[in-house]
Amino acid sequence: MAETAGPPAAGAPAWLAGHEPAPLGRRFGALLADWLLCVLVSAFFADPRTSGWPPVAVLLVANTLFVGLFGQTPGMYVTRLRCVSFADGGAIGLLRGLLRAALLVLVVPTLIMDGLRRGLHDRVAGSIVLLVRPASAEAAGSR
């Protein structure tokens, strides 16, 4: 699922061993791609140049649905990232996806990070964003 790293940091769950938290550059790239998609989608029903809220609303809904149900947004898919539950590595679900997305659109909580590169929005939602190993690397690793 995610790239191999060392043992989990202090206080991290055991399942996190071998998984690498997503670097800031990729996270920013994913958010930028998602934001551009949200601006394009919101242009169908509002002018994003005159009203800044429609793209934010689309980002909130899209992030809630994609992260809550699939573990990644389109931008995360392109940058090979996945958002999972910190407790067990599973899906975070719609409610925690909404909480995470609501804090994400506030921007500041995303800048307050811990040693595992979890923003405040991740910590409150009980999630972590990890690098996803390409399928070819997974096949090579299982040989």
From TrEMBL:
Source taxon at top rank: Bacteria
Organism (species): Spirilliplanes yamanashiensis
One Pfam family, short name: RDD
An annotated GO cellular component: membrane
Location of the protein in the cell: Membrane
Protein name as annotated: RDD domain-containing protein
Membrane topology according to the record: Multi-pass membrane protein
Membrane-spanning segments: 28-46, 53-71, 91-113
InterPro entries per the UniProt record, alphabetical: RDD
Transmembrane helix listed as a keyword: yes
RDD domain: residues covered: 22-126
Statement: the UniProt record of this protein carries the keyword Repeat: no
UniProt KW keywords: Membrane, Transmembrane, Transmembrane helix
